[in-house]
Amino acid sequence: MNRDKFAGYTKERLLDLIEIYSKNWLATDGVWFQSVEQKSGMDEAIYHDEEAWRRFAAIEARRLKGFLGLGDRSGLEGLKAALALRMSANVNETVLDLKENELICTLKVCRVQSARSRKGMPLHPCKPVGEIEFSVFAANIDPRIKCECLSCYPEVTDPGCGCKWRFYISEGSENA
User: Fold this and answer.
1) Is 1 part of any domain?
2) Residue 144 in contact with residue 72, Cβ under 8 Å?
3) Pick from 40, 44, 62, 64: nearest CA to 52
4) Which residues pair with 166 in a beta bridge?
């Protein structure tokens, strides 16, 4: 990467640029999904979305793990640090609550669902995609970590947020 082109920018301007890059990343994700959805239907789009997230979540986790210098067994603390730096955390207000044996990740408002609503489109049934995305991401930070969906469309149990996920280290995997 040519870092020289960024040298003249203040920290504040670089943070603005990170926000722009994050929004562009999300727009790219939405544009390709909607293209498949319009041509081949929601089921086909979901299939490709699952495959894309299975691959991307692993790549994103490994890169953030390296950036943060996390070991292979960095636990829920390592996962919390990595989740805070995800591209999606830059565009969705994300709350990470670590308590003893679990980490709860809450996306307060989902930009994807907000955009679909604003455009008069049906909501994205993202729970199956999210299960893959968050499980793969967590396992690439620490293979002992498991993920459970607490609330995500179409199975919303907490209407006060976009979605909510629970991470934990499963019994018997602590020595794995």
Assistant:
1) no
2) no
3) 44
4) 104, 148
Return the higher-pLDDT residue of 170 and 127.
Answer: 127
Q: What is the pLDDT of residue 2?
A: 86
Residue 14 lies in a domain: yes
21: tokens are 């890059």
The three-point CA angle 150-114-57 to 5° equals: 55
The count of structural domains within the chain is 1
CATH number, residue 104: 3.30.1380
Report the predicted TM-score, pTM, of the whole model to 2 decimal places: 0.92
In a domain, 3, yes or no: no
Compute how many other C-beta atoms are within 10 angstroms of the C-beta atom of residue 145.
24
In a domain, 30, yes or no: yes
Residues in the chain: 176
Give me 93's structure tokens.
């207000």
Residue range 1-26, pLDDT digits in tens: 788 999 999 999 999 999 999 999 99
Which domain covers residue 111, as residue numbers?
10-169
For the stretch 86-117, pLDDT in tens is 999 988 899 999 998 999 999 998 888 888 89
What does the pLDDT read at residue 170? 80
